[in-house]
Amino acid sequence: MLRKLLLLLVPFLILVLFTIGWFRSELVTPYYSGAADETFVEIPRGSATNGIAGLLADAGVLRSRLPFMIYVRWRDLGRRLQAGEYRFASAATPIQIAERLVQGDVFYYSVTIPEGLTAEETIDLIARAGLGKRDEMERALHRTEWIRDLVPQASTLEGYLFPDTYRFARKTTSEQIIHALVEQFRQKITQLTSEHPLGPGRSISRVVTMASLIEKEVFSRDERVEVASVFENRMDKGMPLACDPTVIYALKLAGKYDGNIRKVDLRMESPYNTYVHTGLPPGPIANPGLDSLRAAIDPPKTDYLFFVSRNDGTHQFSKDFRTHQNAVDRFQKRVKR
Predict the structure, then answer these.
(1) Quick one: which of 153, 145, 141 has its CA closest to 204?
(2) Chain-centre distance for alpha carbon 322
(3) Which of 21, 117, 286, 320 has its CB 3.0 to 4.6 Å from that of 212, i.e. a possible disulfide?
(4) In a 3-state reduction of DSSP, which class is residue 142?
(5) Are 283 and 294 in contact (CB under 8 A)?
(6) DSSP states of 16-47 as a string?
(7) For residue 200, what pLDDT is reported?
(8) Which domains does the chain have, with CATH numbers?
(9) How far is it, in rounded angstroms, from Cα 275 to Cα 50?
(10) Beta pairing partners, 88
C-alpha cells in the first residue's frame, strides 16, 4: 500500500517541483517580443489583474499571464496597479513590470516652454517635441473663450500660454495641449493678483502686455522691475516706449523679419510699433514668465526714463536724455567702432 502511495506521490511531487521551478524562472527571466522596437499598452482605469495580464501578454510584454497574476495576488498589489499608458522597449521580468505599474511609471512626453516665445514659436516647439498637430494648435490659438473672463478683448492667446515644463500623454490632443498652457497661466495670474491686487487703471491685459515687453527686453531678473518702472514713467509723460521687440513683432506679423532691424523699420506703420505710437501695443508680443508678470503688476517708483545695454547682459539706467546719450556713447558706439 505504501509502495503504491509512493508511486502516486513521487510524480505529484515532481510536478509540483517542476511548477515551482518554472514559476520562479518565469518571474526572474526578462522577456519582450513586441512587434516593434517599442510598444505602448493602455491600462484602463478599474482593470482587473487578469485583464491587465492579458493586455501585457497580447502586446508581447509578458510571455505568460499566470506568473504575473500569481505574483500580483501573492503580494496583494492588485489595487495598487495604476491606469495609464505604459511604454515598453526592452525585456523585463514580470516582477519589474508589476513594480512599474505600482509606481505609475506612465509614459509622458516632456516639453519645456521657455519664457519669451511667441505663440507661433511655442506651437513650433511643441510640434517638434512630437506632440499635437501644428495646424490644429494654430487654430486653438484663437480659442479666446478660454480667457474671456480675464481678458474680454483678447483676439488670440498670444501672451497667455504660460512658459513652464509640461508632461503630456502620447494621445493628448492639440486643443488639450494649448488649453493646459492657458490653465497654467490662469493659475499663476490668479495667485499673483491675490498677492498683489490690481490697482486703478490696471487690468490683466495691461499687465500681460507690459510683462511681454519686459520679457523681451531684459534677461536679468533683477532688472525687470526697473525696466517696468521706465515703461511706466515714459507712458506717464506721453513718451513713446521705443521698444525694439515690438518692432520685431510687427515685422514678424507682416512676414518681413529677417533677423535685423533697420532705421526704416522703426517708422513702419503698425499698432505694435512703439516708436510710432505712444502707450502699450494692442496686446502681448510674447508669453511672459512669472518674474516679468510680477514686475509688471507691481513696478517700483523710480525716476528712470532710459536704459541701454552694457553688452554684458545688464543695462545702464538713466533719468535724463543727456545721461542716457553718454551711456549710449560709452556702451554702444564704442562697440561699433
Answers:
(1) 153
(2) 43
(3) 286
(4) coil
(5) no
(6) HHHHHHHHHHHHHS-B---SSS-EEEEE-TT-
(7) 83
(8) 25-103 (3.30.1490.480), 109-195 (no CATH)
(9) 69
(10) 39
- Extract the runs of DSSP E, i.e. beta strands, from 109-254: 109-112, 165-168
Among the listed residues 37, 42, 32, the one whose alpha carbon sits nearest the alpha carbon of residue 94: 32
80: helix, coil or strand?
Answer: helix
Spatial contact of 272 and 280, defined as CB atoms under 8 Å apart: no
Between helix 204-217 and helix 290-297 the angle, nearest 10°, is 120
* Alpha-carbon gap, residue 309 to 335, rounded angstroms: 11
CA 119-125-126 angle, 5° bins: 90
**Model-level pTM?**
0.83
CA angle, 44 then 65 then 172, to 5°? 25
Cell triple for 271: 499698432
Q: What type of residue sits at position 78?
A: G
Provide the pLDDT for residue 199. 82
Interatomic CA distance for residues 244 and 251, integer angstroms: 11
Give the tens place of pLDDT for each residue, 105-124.
Answer: 999 999 999 999 999 999 99
Nearest by Cα to 316 from 206, 220, 195, 176: 220
